[in-house]
Amino acid sequence: MNATTRFVIYTSLLGYVFLNNYLILLLGIVIIVSLLLIYNYNIESFDSANVGTLDEGKHTSKNPFYNVLNTDYVDNVNKDKLREEYNQNKETEINHQAKQFIYETNKSNKDIGNIFNNLLDNLNFETSMRQFYINPITTIPTVKMIF
């Protein structure tokens, strides 16, 4: 948005200087106003979307990314698929469930309550989460005739 607006401003000013026509400045203003309207419309439509309610409860401390596990082929054959795409709310939920998993598996450690109290621990946690990812398929492919 900023780079596009800057480009329109510079192009309009250069066009006005070289061609000495005020309509080029007017065209630049119209383009900037239309860019702002499009940007605000997209932000409002994104904010009004119902995000975060469809997949609540699917990310657990045992499987924070809701990936297909080997045990799902026996224990959870009819696994539901995720309905929403990855976003900031999903990242927050995944990080919370991963921290819960750390707390649950280290109950015997007496200092486990102090693990995420400072910035360095949280930064190390964020860095350690880089190697994990969400698989695009969250169901068990049982219907072979679709392909």
Essential attributes:
147 residues; mainly alpha; 2 domains; 5 helices; 52% helix
Task: Please explain how this structure is put together.
The protein is mostly helical. It has two domains: 2-48; 52-141, no CATH class. The chain has five helices and no strands. It has helices spanning 2-19, 22-48, 72-75, 88-105, 119-128. Helix 1 runs antiparallel to helix 2. The longest helix is centred in the first third of the chain and has 27 residues, at 22-48. The radius of gyration is 25 Å and the shape is elongated. 3% of the residues are buried.
| Beta-strand residue percentage | under 5%
Fraction of residues in helix: 40-55%
| Integer average pLDDT | 77
Distance between the termini: 41 Å
Strand elements, count:
0
